[in-house]
């Protein structure tokens, strides 16, 4: 019995598969203003789990949350030359407020380095006030001409960290700490994406930074997604906003700064990393729903059994939903949970109950087998661990299998049609980078020969990771 | 030894005391654009605790979080006549985006009934989709001509719930559920504010609602603060946005709706309810820091002891901070924790250590006494419970002591100079309400004779609560 596919198959049209999945799994809708999005409850629950995990890591790194206004006076943006050049084309401008034309238009924050520095310059007096480690969870606006839901939206949600330090070394170490112990740890161990850590070239750097560290993930179609960035800002904003401190030498010095962010774009990365033709596959550690316990039929014994099992799993710390909506056909409900990527379905009908078992369906590894109700809690814990590891292994295998070592721009472009390319940076250089850009291929990042993060762009042995990117 | 007061005394100038406290306790700063605010880390940690407590109650009430765009096409606002009339004067309007003038200007959400109804009308098909219970945590903008930090700001943070139901009765019951089991429970049992629950008069109702339920708190100066509201929207927005469902009768029917919100204004209410001339007093259940363990001097034994005690308290589930910054004078640190309203200070110096005790200073009940280090964890738990109850009792005592029964408008205005007045609604009426408004006194809400929430404005025995309000 052939089923009509619910989603456009990935192999037929990956972008259409992505859009189909977002609609069918009820993750998000397009907003009424071009480029904006409505994040639906299930999509938002994925984001809430991301927030919770990233927030805990940010607090472990010593930063505190705060909130800065989203309206920024236009003149703030212009104080850092590269920054304004980078962001001007993307600004949303408020010209009227309270029924009147404003004397000075205000922009909706595209990012908050400028307004935050204005306050850092008031709050920082002496070296005792440093380091100052601030984070905020906020919405930001960058007007998008070619929007794509979760990946490039006019308004998106993110966290943006902003810090001030007494020395260059301290700022540099902190940018690296965030890169590794917040972002890499979260993306690898929770999102199960085998991200590559590297540094951006001068061309790809954040507008106003002296160094940008990035995490790049390979998506299901072989393209790259920048999943998060951590910037060293040097003293660029400190000089523009006069953010100085009294050093223990008695001299006034400019602070050294970092900023770093990760956004709802990670939801897009999750979908494109782990999704398949049947829908999303959510890594167990992230999953807002790790297990759904389904009543196949609506008789009392079955409904009692699924509720009791739900309670047992909940007591064991599993994030569980009980689906006893038996007025909807079982098959339709099963397909829906599959679309939503819930790692485990435990299905119970009258016959299962008689045998003292449930049918355990694995969304990630695939397959379906009966498990004894007595031991199902232990089995679930084991399966969740296995499938978390499996997703990361699959992500790694794909990246390795679809990354080619190349020696010329032509080969790089060829490789980028199905995956990534690696090429010595010394052989490519800024000139080669510009040529690749004309063909839609970019240097995602530079890594060292042994896969580390280079200390400098011109470090001997640097390798460029080349790809088409979202 | 007379100390110069750190804050303007409340009795001298309450508004100045409020501003002083917000600055000195490092809660917030004014933003660069008029009416906006920067919420500093300690102020934001109060808000995070509020979010966490309110969010858990909202989820218990069955609502799910989602996120809708902050940019709303101007034409949406105009579809519900009262709504647009109410909000038009406060709108911020984006006229330019991405370097171009927009074809249709977009407004920054002042609240989201309109845009959410646009999507409800797509998502709701049949009675099976109801009730639809959605909440979002978001920033909103209402242009303020007379801003006051936390209380009336151009941009503020809040949660806004939006629901759709099959029947009038179901919507009404849900608005009441939120009023009582989310807001009242949180404000009374966590914020320790003895709020009065009532219904708004037609004059004070939300623009577009058929009924507004409110929670009003009496502040330290006797004025009222609206702490949260829960609205029955009837079918007003459903008709404006054509939000219909297929009933089990086979007929298409308009949904019945509610909306409800509570905002960063609650931080202002917290300050003005519990603050005193020495600073804030934070109720233990809310407090981001319940206990600070302070090293009086920096010798090793003392620092080891405060850290060990901090670990014991943390293990017992207490939210604790260890203050071993002994390079700052002890007195200055103590004053700072007092300003921030941390319920308990445990102070340890060499002599305390010798005697096996710590000095326990109570910010809420006042007083200082030695406690044995052996039993300090149990003592802390008891004191936190006592002081939570004490704050609520004080809030209640103030409200009762400063509420007068009156029989005329003149008496009401007189009573409102120091507190609240109660007057039979039948004797006041909409005409009396308008006269009071000319003198800056408003009907905060109507309650029944026995203090309940009236089912209707014209219900016999309704009593009007009258006050000046923030």
Automatic annotation (TrEMBL), chains A, B:
EC primary class: ligase
Keywords: Aminoacyl-tRNA synthetase, ATP-binding, Cytoplasm, Ligase, Nucleotide-binding, Protein biosynthesis
Pfam families: HGTP_anticodon (PF03129), tRNA-synt_2b (PF00587)
Extent of the signal sequence: none
Assigned EC number: 6.1.1.15
Positions of the Aminoacyl-transfer RNA synthetases class-II family profile domain: 34-283
HAMAP family per record: Pro_tRNA_synth_type3
Role, per record: Catalyzes the attachment of proline to tRNA(Pro) in a two-step reaction: proline is first activated by ATP to form Pro-AMP and then transferred to the acceptor end of tRNA(Pro).
Complex formation: Homodimer.
Name recorded for this polypeptide: Proline--tRNA ligase
Gene from which this protein is expressed: proS
């Amino acid at each position: 019995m052939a089923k009509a596919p619910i989603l456009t198959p990935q192999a037929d049209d990956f972008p259409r598969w992505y859009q189909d999945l977002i609609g069918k799994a009820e993750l998000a809708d397009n907003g009424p203003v071009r480029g904006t999005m409505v994040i639906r409850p299930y999509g938002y629950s994925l984001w809430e789990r991301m927030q919770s995990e990233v927030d805990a890591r940010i607090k472990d790194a010593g930063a505190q949350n705060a909130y800065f206004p989203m309206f920024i006076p236009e003149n703030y943006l212009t104080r850092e030359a590269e920054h304004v050049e980078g962001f001007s084309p993307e600004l949303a401008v408020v010209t009227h407020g309270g029924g009147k034309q404003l004397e000075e238009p205000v922009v909706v924050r595209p990012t908050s380095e400028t307004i935050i520095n204005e306050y850092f310059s008031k709050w920082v007096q002496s070296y005792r006030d440093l380091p100052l480690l601030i984070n905020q969870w906020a919405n930001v606006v960058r007007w998008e001409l070619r929007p794509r839901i979760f990946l490039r939206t006019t308004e998106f949600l993110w966290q943006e960290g902003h810090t001030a330090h007494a020395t260059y070394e301290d700022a540099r170490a902190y940018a690296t700490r965030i890169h590794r112990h917040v972002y890499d740890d979260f993306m690898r161990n929770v999102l199960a994406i085998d991200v590559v850590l590297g540094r951006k070239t001068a061309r790809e750097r954040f507008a106003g930074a002296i160094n940008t560290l990035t995490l790049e993930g390979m998506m299901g179609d072989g393209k790259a997604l920048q999943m998060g960035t951590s910037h060293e800002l040097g003293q660029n904003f400190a000089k523009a906003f006069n953010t100085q401190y009294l050093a223990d030498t008695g001299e006034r010095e400019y602070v050294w700064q970092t900023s770093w962010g990760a956004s709802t774009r990670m939801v897009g990365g999750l979908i494109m990393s782990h999704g398949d033709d049947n829908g999303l596959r959510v890594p167990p550690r992230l999953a807002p729903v790790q297990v759904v316990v389904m009543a196949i039929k609506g008789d009392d014994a079955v409904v009692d059994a699924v509720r009791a099992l739900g309670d047992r799993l909940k007591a064991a710390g599993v994030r569980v939903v009980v689906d006893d909506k038996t007025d909807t056909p079982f098959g339709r409900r099963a397909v829906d949970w599959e679309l939503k990527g819930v790692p485990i379905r435990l299905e119970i009908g009258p016959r299962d109950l008689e045998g003292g078992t449930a049918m355990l369906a694995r969304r990630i590894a695939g397959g379906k087998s009966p498990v004894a109700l007595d031991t199902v809690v232990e089995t679930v814990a084991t399966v969740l661990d296995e499938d978390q590891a499996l997703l990361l292994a699959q992500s790694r295998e794909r990246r390795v299998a679809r990354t080619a070592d190349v020696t010329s721009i032509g080969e790089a472009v060829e490789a980028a049609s199905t995956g990534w390319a690696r090429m010595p940076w010394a052989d490519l250089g800024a000139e080669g980078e510009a040529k690749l850009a004309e063909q839609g291929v970019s240097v995602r990042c530079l890594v060292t020969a042994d896969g580390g993060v280079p200390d400098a762009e011109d470090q001997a042995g640097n390798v460029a990771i080349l790809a088409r990117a979202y």
